[in-house]
Design a protein that fits this description.
The complex is a heterodimer of chains A (448) and B (440).
Chain A lengths: L2 H5 L7 E17 L5 E15 L4 E6 L4 H13 L18 E5 L7 H19 L6 E17 L19 E16 L5 E8 L7 H11 L14 E4 L1 H14 L2 H6 L19 E4 L20 E6 L2 E2 L6 H7 L7 E2 L8 E2 L4 E3 L11 E8 L1 H4 E2 L4 E11 L6 E10 H4 L3 E9 L9 E7 L4 E5 L1
Parallel strand pairs in A: 4-6, 8-15
Antiparallel strand pairs in A: 1-2, 1-5, 2-3, 5-6, 6-7, 8-20, 9-10, 9-14, 10-11, 12-13, 15-17, 16-17, 17-18, 18-21, 19-20
Helix pairs in contact in A: 3-4
Chain B lengths: L21 E16 L2 E18 L5 E6 L27 H22 L3 E18 L5 E17 L6 E8 L8 H17 L13 E3 L1 H13 L13 H4 L12 E3 L22 E5 L2 E2 L6 H7 L7 E2 L8 E2 L3 E4 L6 H6 L4 E9 L8 E13 L2 E6 L2 E6 H6 L1 E4 L4 E9 L2 E9 L2 E3 L7
Parallel strand pairs in B: 7-14, 13-20
Antiparallel strand pairs in B: 1-2, 1-4, 2-3, 4-5, 5-6, 7-21, 8-9, 8-13, 9-10, 11-12, 14-15, 15-16, 15-17, 18-21, 19-20
Helix pairs in contact in B: 1-2
The chains are: A alpha+beta (448), B alpha+beta (440).
Chain lengths: 448, 440
């Protein structure tokens, strides 16, 4: 059955949008000295959206047979709700055809498995055997193809496709993603995660991760805040977690409703001159890159914070409509089995300032329970952390505890943002860099 | 409605020479999720789910899971026959329109009742989630276990506002048989949430001194779930560095604390006779009078530990590997009268809701956010207190339990582990944590 056959089942005046996504995902886990786990997932799913004069109805199915698609079409018709401003997904300025953020070279589960196993071997070499820390290496590779189709405009078509001139077109978007990650746990409740992202498993820098791991493991006894802390260094995993909270504060709908601590501060200074934040939906090396967002709007690069000044927020069509602005292409859908949300794509801190010379600092390796501990409206964040006290700039003493962070003040304490951005498994498009901040009352540390 | 390839009635034996274990999990079902704001339908999500997952033990001791919505997919090439009939679920006959109409009416009624309590209860958000599944598990000896599963859960969140920043309180309602909860029980739950949201509107700073922390059944259930349950999932221990694995047989709490996971609990919304590996479910005592005892197993971890699987292997979908999961996990009531216990405490912080607490099994560290907190004097609430973090090691928190009450309360919930969401229930009597090291 073709998509056009489904269109013929629609009542007069209705439009149909169909998206079929096919994915092959490989997940591999190698625990140190343990048994590997491999998961090969072949997935396909169809999302059907019916557009009528009353609004929009949406249904999904993994059953792509004729009966399955017809059932989904009927469900979508049952589920029609008012949805002003919705446009068909294939609409936009770049038209139909094939778009890609993909590496066309093939790979197999053995290739993915080899990267996780190789990372384990490199860690064995760098960190040694016996009483060395425990680790778990993971690799994931996904190849997805998304076919979109929107029915031709009819005489009585509603706002859904009116004026776009692109309805009736088919488009295919391909994407490949590959990650590798090591989670290392040591004595005294110490834990650290390192990883890399590429478009193909062969592009993952396994040896660099292992080299870095060797510099991150503390060798001393636990530290409980016995000396004053004047500087904090947020490692990439912790920075990505912070950025996830900041990304939420930069969403247009939250900004409009006053549910962001940044609300009302556009064109005002919100941080230090070293703070610049960019959302880039077309970053070549970004895991969340797409040519079009989930509403069919072309993605783009949006500067949100420019040298400390808030200059823009992120929009989908609904929030842009309320602001009299245009969408920034931030209607994000991780895959079609997930809901469409206004969200950042690839969110990056722009490197700025010089890395300070070696000095005593508290290194924050990892933040836990950030999502439940964040109060974005007030700019407060409670989170557990794992870290290292570095009295002379090198990793010495493991530290655990919790942090209470005043985000509005922390943004003014940034001294430098260092490194090329790195995207970690499980952190979506939040770019991990190293953040150097002064330690002020913006961050309250409780030692475990 | 069913593709021909699915209609085989019984699979052939799947084990082949040299294969230690191979099994198949197939499912067919649907999900309907309605979101209503102040009685108005805001969103409908509806989908049809169908697929097969085949799991194989590899020669290196590892495990490979291959899955596809299409049983004829090339990912199954080289594997034994995998056609398993999960049964049929009629998508058309599910009455989506009737469900929408019914819950729009219910929601309007709930909103009216909440507003009648206090005008400051300004917004009522409801989520209605219906899930129906036919699942089939085929074992290597040719055994086929078929089960029909259904779940229905309504969540009500009440927001209160006046001149102060808004506050909110949420509650979930589910029935043991997976049927729709009656309107009266949803209204009663929503009214309770409204009272709590309004009460929280003008919090005052907590006293600047260490106080005992009293957790009611819902909050104590979360504490038990996170501090004990996840640590006792055997796949968090095997092949991993785990403080729980190192502490089996140790005393971690007072003797009044006994924690059970019961997949067959008759009054729970997440009970089952067989798990997703086809193992018959039996209760497990995780903590026995303060001592860490039983583990929650999949078949694979049970073999590694030389124990019997207990029916705790669950998976989110056919595409996900079965993990050792909690089901209905709760602390048993002690002989101490809760009301008398609270009256004996001159001053304490009383928490009704704990958020977060995702434990790192390797380190045992976790952080909760205590919400819906009030300052309690001799068992009577004095004033509300803003949310605050409760952090530390799991065993350190358990060692702070100084008393366990007799008022067991079990609530439905969703638990996410390694990206897989499953239905759980959690509960406990009222628990008192002493004031040592309280983070505030």
């Amino acid at each position: 059955m073709t998509w056009r056959h489904l269109t013929r089942m629609l009542p007069p005046g209705a439009e149909l949008e169909v998206v079929v996504e096919e994915r092959v995902a490989y997940d591999v886990e190698h625990p140190r000295g343990g048994r590997p786990m491999r998961n090969v997932r072949r997935q396909h799913q169809a999302a059907l959206t019916v557009l009528t004069a009353e609004g929009r109805g949406h249904a999904m199915t993994t059953d792509l047979s004729r009966d399955g698609m017809v059932s989904a079409l009927r469900l979508a018709q049952c589920a029609v709700l008012p949805a002003p401003g919705h446009r068909a997904r294939t609409s936009g300025t770049q038209g139909a055809g094939v778009a890609t953020f993909a590496d066309c070279r093939e790979w197999t589960v053995e290739d993915v498995d080899a990267q996780a196993a190789r990372l384990g071997e490199c860690l064995d070499e760098r960190l040694g055997g016996g009483a060395a820390p425990h680790w778990l290496t993971r690799a994931r590779a996904i190849r997805s193809t998304c076919h979109s189709y929107a029915s031709a405009s009819r005489a009585s078509a509603g706002p859904a496709t009116a004026g776009t001139g692109r309805a009736g077109e088919e488009r295919t978007e391909e994407r490949t993603q590959a990650w590798v990650q090591a989670r290392i746990t040591g004595r005294h409740a110490f834990g650290v995660s390192l990883g890399d992202f590429a478009r193909h498993p062969d592009g993952l820098s396994v040896t660099a991760i292992a080299d870095e791991a060797a510099t991150r493991i503390p060798t001393g006894e636990p530290w409980h805040g016995d000396a004053p802390v004047r500087h904090l260094v947020w490692q990439p995993e912790a920075t990505a977690a912070l950025l996830a909270v900041l990304g939420t504060a930069l969403l247009g709908d939250r900004y409009q409703a006053g549910r962001s601590f940044l609300a009302g501060r556009r064109n005002k200074l919100i941080g230090a001159g070293t703070l610049s934040i960019v959302d880039d939906g077309r970053l070549a090396a970004g895991p969340m890159s797409r040519v079009y967002d989930a509403e069919g709007v072309p993605t783009r690069r949006t500067v949100l914070v420019d040298r400390g000044t808030l200059v823009a927020v992120l929009h989908d069509e609904a929030s842009a409509g309320r602001d009299g602005a245009t969408s920034t292409g931030n209607s994000v859908q991780e895959h079609i089995g997930r809901p469409r949300l206004l969200a950042p794509t690839n969110l990056l801190l722009v490197p700025a300032g010089e890395a300070p010379p070696p000095r005593a600092h508290l290194r924050i390796e990892d933040l836990r329970d950030v999502a439940t501990g964040a109060d974005v409206a007030r700019g407060l964040l409670h989170a557990g952390f794992t870290g290292v006290w570095c009295p002379d700039g090198t990793a010495r003493h493991p530290v655990t505890g919790s942090l209470s962070i005043r985000l509005d003040r922390l943004l003014h304490d940034i001294e430098a943002v260092v490194g090329p951005p790195r995207f970690l498994l499980g952190r979506a498009g939040f770019a991990a860099l190293t953040l150097h901040t002064r330690h002020t009352d913006a961050v309250r540390v409780r030692w475990a | 409605m069913t593709a021909t390839a699915w209609r085989s009635t019984r699979p052939p034996p799947l084990a082949s020479a040299g294969t230690a274990w191979i099994d198949v999990f197939a499912e067919h079902g649907y999900n309907d999720i309605l979101t209503l704001d102040d009685g108005r339908l805001r969103d409908i999500e509806t989908d049809i789910v169908r697929g097969t997952g085949l799991r194989r033990l590899d020669p290196d001791g590892g495990t490979t899971l291959v899955s596809s919505p299409d049983p004829r997919s090339e990912v199954f090439d080289g594997c034994p026959a995998i056609v398993v009939d999960a049964g049929d679920v009629s998508a058309d006959g599910r009455g989506l329109s009737a469900l929408i109409n019914r819950w729009q009416r219910h929601s309007a009624e709930v909103v009216a009742r909440v507003r009648a309590i206090d005008a400051r209860a300004s917004r009522v958000s409801m989520t209605v989630r219906r899930q129906v599944r036919q699942v089939a598990v085929a074992l290597p000896d040719g055994t086929l276990r078929r089960q029909a599963r259904r779940w229905f859960r309504t969540t009500v969140t009440v927001y209160a506002t006046d001149a102060a920043p808004p506050s909110r309180a949420a509650v979930g309602v589910a029935t043991p048989d997976g049927g729709e909860p009656d309107l009266a029980s949803v209204i009663a739950a929503a009214e309770g949430a409204a009272h709590r949201a309004v009460w929280q509107l003008h919090p005052r700073p907590a006293p600047d001194r260490a106080l005992p922390l009293v957790l009611n059944g819902m909050a104590a259930g979360v504490l038990i779930h996170e501090c004990v349950g996840h640590g006792m999932e055997a796949d968090n221990i095997v092949d991993r560095d785990s403080v729980f694995g190192r502490s089996l047989g140790s005393t971690v709490a007072l003797t009044d604390l006994t924690v059970v996971d019961d997949p067959t609990h008759p009054m729970s919304w997440c009970s089952h006779r067989y798990d997703d590996e086809g193992t018959a479910a039996v209760p497990t005592r995780l903590v026995d009078r303060g001592v860490l005892r039983g583990l929650l197993h999949t078949r694979a971890t049970a073999v590694r530990f030389g124990e019997r699987p207990c029916g705790n292997a669950l998976r989110d979908t056919f595409a996900a590997p079965p993990l050792a999961r909690m089901t209905t996990t709760y602390a048993l009531p002690s002989g101490t009268d809760t009301a008398a216990l609270l009256r004996s405490v001159p001053e304490a912080l009383h928490c009704r809701h704990l958020d977060g607490g995702q434990v790192d099994p390797a380190t045992g560290q976790l952080v909760f956010t205590a919400r819906e907190v009030s300052c309690l004097r001799y068992g009577e609430p004095a004033y509300p207190v803003p949310p605050f973090p409760v952090a530390g090691g799991a065993f350190a928190l358990l060692s702070r339990i100084s008393a366990v009450g007799d008022d067991l309360d079990i609530v439905p919930g969703i638990c996410i582990k390694r990206g897989q969401a499953v239905r759980v229930a959690m509960g406990a009597p009222t628990i008192v944590l002493d004031a040592r090291g309280r983070a505030r």
